[in-house]
Amino acid sequence: MTQSLNDESRKHIEQVAGEALAQLESIAETAKSKLHDGRTLGSNALASINTMTSSSAIQRLDQISQANRESYQVLVAEPAIARVVVADEEGEEKTYYICRTTPVSGFPNLASYRAPVGRLASLAIGAEFTLPNGTVVEVLERAQLRPNALADGWDSRDTVVEAEHFGPFTIESLRALLTEVAGEEVTEDILGQLLAEETVKANIIDGVRRSVITKMGLRDQPILDQYQDEIFRLPLDKRLLILGPPGTGKTTTLIRRLGQKLDTAFLEEGEQRLVETVASAQGIAHANSWLMFTPTELLKQYLKEAFAREGVPASDLRIRTWQDYRRELARNAFGVLRTASGGGTFVLKDGLASLSETALERPIQWFDDFDTWQRKAYVQELHDAATQLHEAKTPEVLSLSARLQDILSRAADGALAAMFGSLAVEIAKVQALVSSLKEGSDGKIKAALNLQLNRNRAFLDELARVIDSLQQAQATDADDQDDPDADEEEDATAPRTGRAAALNAYMQAVRTQARAAASKRAVSKASRNGKIIEWLGERGLTEADRAEVGASLLVQASARRFVNPVKRYLDGIPKRYRAFRRERQPANTWYRHEGFEARDIHPLELDIVLLAILRAASDLISRPNVQRDIDSPAWSSLQPILGHYRNQILVDEATDFSPIQLASMAALAHPRLRSFFACGDFNQRLTTWGARSADDLKWVLSDFDIKEITVSYRQSKQLNDLARAMIRAVGGTEQDASLPAHMDSVGVAPALLEHATNAEAIVGWLADRIREIERFVGQLPSTAIFVNTEDDVAPVADALNAALAEHNIQVIACREGQAVGQESNVRVFDIQHIKGLEFEAVFFVGIDQLATLHPALFDKYLYVGTTRAATYLGVTCQGTLPSAIESLRTHFCQDWQQGD
User: Fold this and answer.
1) Mapping DSSP to helix (H, G, I), strand (E, B) and coil, where does residue 870 land?
2) What is the span of the domain harbouring residue 276?
3) Is 238 annotated as a binding residue?
4) Which segments show compositional bias classed as Acidic residues (predicted)?
């Protein structure tokens, strides 16, 4: 409970106000002069000192100079965010000022919030803290400052001051407090004194006042509470998940942590050395080596804004939606998706009806089934190849086959890394064997071609015309791609037209024919090679040569499996997935019976393929010997994947992502650092495939450190009570969301309109409530209206605009969740875009319809939507409250007139 303000406390607060405002002015002035005197060390100054200095040193100094300038700019606008008084064991007191950025020199008691001393700003009165020099101090007094530069000096608005013997109090204006003190002696008449007393009372408010949300976006919380603060300071190599109800500052903690961890000055010495090593190996500066995933485009925009406040530049390259990043990885990095230039296996189809309910409900088991199957399939492929080699007659091939079989027989189940290590020793010998055999078989085929050219010089030109006609007809048999013995020397860069393409096609077709003869298989007449063979007739190899070349090609194909086993394993995962799907489809376990194109893939299937690739690569790269020898032929195919790793991976709204998606993101964290930080809330999961339990998340990372934060800073008591009752009503995950101590959290009951069957009634009711809010608050705070479909956005905005025109309140239709217009506008959104935003007032239109539209997620949408509001919540129904939440009726009122 706050202690009332006596004269002694009031005098003390006045002293604090005077000292704080003087300090704000002094810091801001010093920063401004540093900014303007231009004496930050730059390349020109350095070059004149020593012309021999390396360009990297000059660059480093330029970076320092730039960082200093950015810090000065922050300090000019916001000199400090807290004032803390501590006492050591001898009772000696010291006052610290804490700022958001790197402090300016000349202020020994000014510390960055990111520095260890910055933790003082988050500690409770009476808490003990060990300073970096080992001195133990106790927190005696704390003031949270919100600096405000006025034309004639500094002020701090809504400053919260507390100490052992008083507070907390919220002071509207420190400046006004000092003006009153100065004016007291001259106010001799009683009326003047009475008015002055009233002004003082209005300026100093008992407890902590909740701020009104006036703009749309993520709330700025300059100082975290002590639990959030502890989390953001944990070491860089942690794998953390923060769970907590809406408004508990999960995202703020995540942003603050990233800000601190990007600033190498605040990393531990060992961490600094490690990030430098990784940066020089990867060629990416630590400051740029991070990636954050968010479920929606709209939330991405707000995160960028919040990062900017924290002084962290966040481009579209750093904050990504998984949807975009997944496509980019699959198409451009791993060749899973087809491209126009001919690479890739699959075509991504968002609405593909390929998956069964089981696949959506049990993604972990689905992934494990595929991954186990494809590993076995790959090892079996190697066994078959080694056996095939054993059937060759030459001693050289037999001895190689024996060594390979020995390695494979010793490989433990699933221990691919050790097997690849042993196979690496044989790569040079295998390569030599393949080259010599290929030289012989190519020689025979080219001799046959020369024979044709001697008879007909136009032979290649005629074949080129045939190929062009085949390309136009697009006669490609889908199963051609799955031929395990298909040529590997043909790559995507092979010429597409002309004589060179004809030569290529001739070699390929003749090889296919020879291989088919040796393995007693027919070539499909519908395939491209089949059509070329048919055209060639007797103009290929003789029957005797065909048998000899075919036998050599089969040995080559088997040996080639051992030339680059790691690359073959990773590159083969998409095709093995297609074979797995074909095999599992009849069982109806993960896939529907109904036919769909073999080349089409659903986004959630693509996640399975990507995770198999990323996990396999990560298992290998995390081994010290592999990292050390990454440039050697055995491991060099891992280089491109290494280029996708980042020092820090962060995920907002983690429960909207499936365990497979989260595991893929976690696999992008650099193996030397393994820094992964996610936040979310199971009750706010707005996807049917999202993570459902802590067990799901422990599967993603077995050493996930899961922390819960429960103090909700957003909502009024009435809305917090409603949110808790809603979780109980719909059987969500119970959470003990509490409100901050000493905070004025009283609001108004949520308002409900039922039987609103026509649009006029709904719009009229919404307009009345919005006008009430403006009257209560004195200005129109941040207000959102959620409708059930994109088609409802514009009509509701237009009708409401007309209804509010006489009070000049503008209503904006935010199509596709795009936030446009001025801060003072009322905004209308489709409900699917509600994630992560917060408003002072929120209205839901037609929640009984929502229950029909989204039966599986209705309770989640309702919970997320109601918890976007800080104080005012209005709900309309065409009929009555949905039965699932009928028990919440007692929480609602009809309007807010009673507060008028």
Assistant:
1) strand
2) 226-367+569-643+651-708
3) no
4) 477-492
Task: Name the burial class of residue 352, with classes exposed (0-12), middle (13-18) and buried (19+) by CB atoms within 10 angstroms of its CB.
Answer: middle
- pLDDT given at position 650: 95
Mark out the alpha helices in 363-522 (DSSP H runs). Answer: 363-390, 395-410, 416-424, 427-455, 459-473, 498-518
Written as one letter, the residue type at 328 is: E
Taking the CA of residue 521 as centre, how many other CA atoms within 13 Å lie in the half-sphere pointing to its CB? 14
List 828's β-bridge partners, or say none.
Answer: 785, 813
Q: Domain holding 822: CATH number?
A: 3.40.50.300
Co-location of 750 and 698 in the same domain: no
Q: What pLDDT, in 10s, does the model give residues 502-525?
A: 888 888 888 998 888 888 888 888
Q: What does the block give as tokens for 787?
A: 């409708």
Examine the fold and report which residue of 133, 154, 186 is the final residue of a domain before the chain moves on. Answer: 186
Q: In what helix (H) or strand (E) does residue 701 lie, and over which residues does it extend?
A: none
In a domain, 423, yes or no: no
Domain count, the chain: 4
d(CA 606, CA 757) in angstroms, rounded, equals: 44
What one-character-per-residue DSSP string does 88-122 give?
ETT--EEEEEEESSPPPTT-TTEEETTSGGGGGGG
The C-alpha atoms of residue 727 and residue 885 are separated, in whole angstroms, by 10
Domain boundary among 125, 159, 186: 186
Residue 578 · residue 609 · CB < 8 Å: no
Beta strands 153-163 and 147-150: pairing type?
A: antiparallel
Residue 873's contacts (CB-CB under 8 Å, 6 or more residues apart) are: 719, 722, 750, 751, 841, 842, 843, 844, 866
One-letter amino acid for residue 885 of the chain: I
Q: Is 573 in the same domain as 686?
A: yes
251 is in an annotated binding site: yes
Same domain for 182 and 76: yes
**244 assigned ligand-binding residue:** yes
Q: Alpha carbon 778 to chain centroid distance?
A: 38
- In angstroms, the Cα distances linking 674 to 61, 152, 242, 290, 677 are 29, 50, 17, 12, 10
Q: What six digits make up the tokens of 481?
A: 């791609």
Distances (CA, A) of 710 to 169, 223, 714: 23, 17, 12
- Assess contact for 842 and 874: CB atoms under 8 A: yes
250 is in an annotated binding site: yes
Of 483, 535, 489, 534, residue with least CA distance to 508: 489
Average pLDDT over residues 799-825: 82
Are 243 and 151 in the same domain? no
Domain assignment present for residue 478? The answer is no
Please say whether the dihedral angle defined by the alpha carbons of residues 838, 839, 844 and 847, taken in this order, is positive or negative: positive
Distance separating alpha carbons of residues 806 and 774, to the nearest angstrom: 14
Residues 300 and 350 grouped into a single domain: yes
On the question of pLDDT at 1 being above 50, the answer is: no
**pLDDT tens-digit series, residues 326-385:** 999 999 999 999 988 778 889 999 989 899 999 998 999 999 999 999 999 999 999 999
Q: Which residues, 6 or more positions from 623, have their beta carbon under 8 angstroms from its beta carbon? A: 417
Using only the alpha carbons of the chain, give its radius of gyration. 35
> Is 187 within any annotated ligand binding site?
no
Was 783 annotated as part of a binding site?
A: no
Q: What is the reported pTM?
A: 0.81
247 labeled part of a ligand binding site: yes
In the numeric block, the tokens 């590993």 are attached to 375
Is residue 553 domain-shared with residue 601, that is, in the same domain? no
- Give a yes or no: residue 607 inside a domain: yes
342 or 868, higher pLDDT: 868
- For tokens 């405000």, the residue is 148
* Short-list 626, 651, 652, CA closest to 641: 626
Nearest to 99 by CA among 87, 115, 123: 115
| Residue 817 contacts residue 297 (beta carbons within 8 Å) | yes
Q: Is 249 annotated as a binding residue?
A: yes
Contact 568, 561 (CB under 8 A): yes
Are both 546 and 591 inside the same structural domain? no
400-432 confidence digits (pLDDT tens): 888 898 888 887 666 888 899 888 888 888 888
> Is residue 388 assigned to a domain?
no
